[in-house]
Every structure is written in C-alpha cells, then in structure tokens.
Amino acid sequence: MTHAEAATRAAFLRTELHHHNRLYYVEARPVISDKDFDLLLRELQEIEQRFPDLLTPDSPTQRVGGAPLEGFTQIRHTVPMMSLDNTYSEEELTAFFARVQKGLARETIDCVIEPKVDGVAITIRYENGVLKHGATRGDGQTGDDVTNNLKTIKRLPLRLPETGPQTFEVRGEVFMPKAGFAKLNKEREEAGEPLFANPRNSTAGTLKLLDPKIVAKRPLDIVFYGLADAGGMDLQSQTDVHALLEAAGLRKADLIWRADSAEGLLAAIRELDEQRKSLPYETDGAVIKVNSFTDQRELGVTSKAPRWAIAYKYQPEQAETKLLAIDIQVGRTGALTPVARLEPVFISGSTVSNATLHNYEEIERKDIRVGDIVVIEKAGEIIPAVVSVKKERRNGGESAVIAPTHCPVCGTAVHRDEEQVVIRCPNPHCPEVVKRRIEHFVCRGAMDISGLGESVVAQLVDLKLVRDVADLYALNELLLARLERVGTKSIYNYLKAIESSKQQDPWRLVFGLGILHVGAGGARKLLEHFGGIDAIAKASVEELVQCPDIGEIVAVSIHAWFHDPVNLQLLDRLRSAGLNFTQKAVTAASEKLNGTTWVITGTLSEDRETIADLIRSHGGKVSGSVSGKTTYLLAGEEAGSKLDKAKKLGVKVLAEPEFRAMI
Ligand code: IVH
C-alpha cells in the first residue's frame, strides 16, 4: 500500500466509522454488526500505525488515546458555567413563574421543561465539525480539561455530520446509566474495592481519573441541554437549541415539555416525576427554562444563576424509622463497616430493614445514636442510607455509638487507614474475614463450588475444619459429618463439587484468591497474558503492567500478594491439592515445540485460545507480544502490527498450514 492509497483508505474508513457510530448511537438503527465495525476500526488502526502522519485527532481510533496524564490542564470558559436556583415546592415554582411574568410584563410565557440529569456538568467545543476540547465546570470560570476522558464516551461524536452545524460550544451532563452503575459496583465489590454511593459520585470519580484507558471501561454517557457559543448561528430559543442538537447528532433530553402557564408547568413536572423512573439516568428534578432568547436576555442573570431558569427538585423518597442497633459487618479485606438495623419500613417500592452508614466518621458527624428515629432515603434510589436524625424526638434513652477499638469477632486491636476512615481488623485469621474469603472463593463467579452456602461456610470455619481456602481440599466425609443439619447426600455433593473445582480454569482460582483490585475480568486477562499462575507470581510490577487492563495500582497489589510468604504457602498447598495452575490443563501431545515461544495474530481457523492450547500441548510457550524472545509468529489473515514488528525483528513468520505441518 502506497502512502497515497493509505491516505484515501484511511479517510474512507474514518467517514464510514463516524457514520456507523452515528447510526448506532444517535439513530439507534445500526446497519453493520459490532464485529464488522471492529474490523473496520482495526483496519484503520493498522494503517495509522504504518503511516503515523495519517492519524488525525478526530479519528475513531482515538477514543482511548494518549498516555495517562500527570494532572489536568485548566480551560478558561468563554462563557461562565453558572448554576441554577433550586425550588423544592410547587408554591416556589409558581412564585418563579410570577416573577418571570412580572419581569416580562406579560401573562403567557413560553417555557420548556427538561429533566434535570444528575451527573456532572460539562462543556464541549466543536470547531469545523471536529471535537476540540471538553472541560468540567470547575469554579464556573475555569475547569479541568477532560477531553481524553470524554472521548471515550462512544455516544459523543468526535466528528459531526457535514450536513449540520460545525462550530459551536455545547453544555451537557455526563452521567453513568443506572444499569452500568449497578454493574460497576458489583465488579468493585468482587474486587474488594470501595463502592460508589450513587451514579453521580461514580461519574465524578471517573472523570477525575488520569488514565483514559480506565475511563474507557466505565459506562459513561452524555446528554446535552444548552449552548455556550452558537458560532455565529442565528438561534432564537431553547427550542432552536434542541433542533441544533438534533442536527448535530448530539443526544438531547429524552423527555421535553412545553408550557406557558403556571398550571402547565405544574402538570409537566408531575408528569416528568411519573416518567423519570424509566429514564436510563438518574434525575433529581426538572429544569424550567423560558424558551425565547429575547425573553432570557430581558430577564438577565444574577451573580450566580440566570433569572430565566430554575431547577425544581423532587424530594427523594424518604421514610422515618427507628434505629434498632448498629451491627458491624466484617468484609473480606477486614474492613469493619457499620450497618444500621432498622425497624422495617416501606420506601420506593420495597421494605427496608438495613441501611448503610458507610463508616464511623459519618455516624459521629451526623450524631446518630441507637434508639434514634432516623430519616432514611434511597440514595440514587439504589442503596438505602441514613440521612439524618430526628433529634427533637429523643427521650434520653438513646445510646451513643462508639467506633470499635477491637474487632468484635476476634478481639484483635483494629487498624485505621491513613485517612482514619476505614477501620480494619488486621488479623488474617479472624473467623469472619476467613468466612468472607471462603464465601468469595466458592462463589459462582469464582470457583463455583455449588452448595457451599453461607451457613455451611460459617459452620466449617466455626468448627475449625477450614481456616483458609486450601483446607477445603482436605475435607472428607468424616469431617463433614460434624456439620449440623447436613445429610450424607449433601456431604457427597459437597465433596464432588470440591473435587471438580480442581479442574476450573486458573483465572477462576486467581479471582477466587481475592487479591485486592483483581476482579474476574482482570484475572482472565492475567491468565491470557501469562498463561499460568506461576508466571504471574514471578512477574515484576513492570511485567505485570504489560498485561492489558492491568494498571500500576493493580500491578503493585498483585505483586505484593505473590510476595507474601503466607500466600505462597497457600498456593503451594493448592497446587499439591491438584488445582489447575495453567491455562486449560492440557495433556502433553508431543514435545515437538519444546523450547519455542509463539505469538499468534490475525484470524485463524480456530479461536486463539484453542490454537494456544494446541501449541502448549506440544511443549511450546505462547506470549502476547512479539519480542526478541519470540521464535515464531503464527500469522492468520489480516495480521496487523504484530506482523510488522516480527518482520522488523526478523522473527520467523508461519502461516497456519506450516504450523499444522510442524505438529
Ligand atoms: S440548564 C445556567 N438543563 O444542573 C445553567 N442544567 O445547577 C443552565 N443540569 O450545572 C443549566 N440537567 O449541570 C440545565 N436539562 C438541564 C440540566 C441541567 C442537569 C445540571 C447542570 C447545571 C446544574 C444546575
């Protein structure tokens, strides 16, 4: 391919990819499969790798571009990012409308009502159809340049359709969809990481990350609601803004009302309240805007907020109930979390009898006492939380909550983290910590030892039959017979499930070990990259970060885990028990490939894992990247950068038939 041919092809591919992205995200009518999309994307990537001068900043390959930043640079907003005044009652909203009527000296005023998306405010500039930069609000005058993080949002066009407006600055809200938030928190829980309290916090936390590669894995999305700079276009109203967003392929609010009287506004906010539950994002209110820009200018702004708009905040559903006790939950990492036990109460569609209190600092700050009447709320309508205390209803019988100085289970003196927020039981043998670890090890996403539920695990630990996960493999009929309410049939099933877990893929074992920050996805990647647990154990931090999806913090955590003598002993015992330490236990077929290292690339007749297993079964090693140590590159169709690298390094390249002939 000549440079000129590559340039033509790259331009074609970019246009195609932008087009398909738009069909998928804006028009919701994709015409090609995800796989075909990826093929086009990969082709473009390969061209850009060969001819780096053809790479443009708006290229669809640049969604996850650039190395992690040291910090964010600041962008000064051309038009300040203001906030809105809030109202909390229909009376206040009616009063707002009356003020507007007075200000404009008119009865009927055309207004627009939009959902108030509960995310993070963002401003984005397009120039000549290309996304130039995006920033957070910051202090309203200057914000963080979060362009690289925003580019990972697939719905956000990097280039605009040529038929629409090309130069302007839009304002919108980045959010995490409810479903994506729930999934992210589940993964964090599995990886032993702290949970996000609500989708807004997780959005804000994600936008603050300096590494766009991590951001790309978080399910961020965006909606737009305003304009900061119309780029010379003649727009007359918020309705025109909606039309412009539409023409530019930028998502606007999914529900929009028009009203021109106070009654009309009230009807709209009530309807929105009914319908907002079905929106994919959290909303905490409605935004009411005077539609006409002439009217907006006439009404003007105060130092903080416009006089032509207001936010009407919905009351999050709250309930009052009695705090019966504070229990301490001991987590897998030893974290002691206070949990409020409540007199059961019905809220937002379900009965709640527990609520999170996050940590002891929060209890102190809110002065929560056992016996108090507390107000609870479904924060982000997901996790119930105690928001405040009805102090006026105290009768003197309440008792203060004291943060534990010792683990309530094993009595070991607790340890506080640097910020003094998380209190941990440092005893690795604490029975509760051990129970949590074993529950995690046997769970479906990990070793999947069916039948070993919470109560059985609790008995196993309490009877000292099991102190760590390796002890599971030393269980026998005699020992299990000591369990209460467990018959011979169950015992047989437990032993069978334990036995067959030895054959589980090793990534399940790595995940099951509960290494901090290593979730199921990370464990899979580790094994794909390293091929076996021993290779992971031997890897340096530098080698670990070479593995896709493994960042510095995770690498340090993995390295530390595999350098703790207690863990190494545990691994030895698991190995002796016969657990599978290498990717798919393959019975050696021959030794024909002994001493060779292979890299696989391109499309082959079978999937890569199968081919890799085949190589391993003949004694070869499989590696993810081409280096001086590579003996052969097995190249299928559409082999890309690896092929180039192999040629450059003089690594011998084999096609599949040649490889098959060798074995
Ligand atoms: S209009 C002058 N419309 O709520 C500010 N804002 O405190 C004009 N928000 O910073 C904002 N949905 O981040 C507007 N449909 C919507 C909105 C919305 C969410 C956020 C925005 C703003 C904050 C107001």
Brief synopsis:
By secondary structure, the protein is an alpha+beta fold.
Topology:
Elements: H1 3-25, H2 34-50, E1 74-76, E2 86-87, H3 90-104, E3 111-117, E4 120-127, E5 130-136, E6 142-144, H4 147-151, E7 168-175, H5 178-190, H6 199-207, H7 212-217, E8 221-229, H8 238-248, E9 257-259, H9 262-275, E10 283-290, H10 293-299, E11 309-313, E12 318-330, E13 336-347, E14 350-356, H11 360-366, E15 369-370, E16 373-379, E17 383-389, E18 399-400, E19 415-416, E20 423-424, H12 431-442, H13 454-462, H14 477-480, H15 488-501, H16 506-512, H17 520-530, H18 533-538, H19 541-545, H20 552-561, H21 565-576, E21 597-601, H22 608-617, E22 621-623, E23 632-635, H23 641-649, E24 652-654, H24 656-662
Parallel strand pairs: 2-11, 21-22, 21-23, 23-24
Antiparallel strand pairs: 1-6, 3-9, 3-10, 4-5, 4-7, 7-8, 10-11, 12-13, 12-16, 13-14, 15-18, 16-17, 19-20
Bound molecules: 2-(butylsulfanyl)adenosine (IVH).
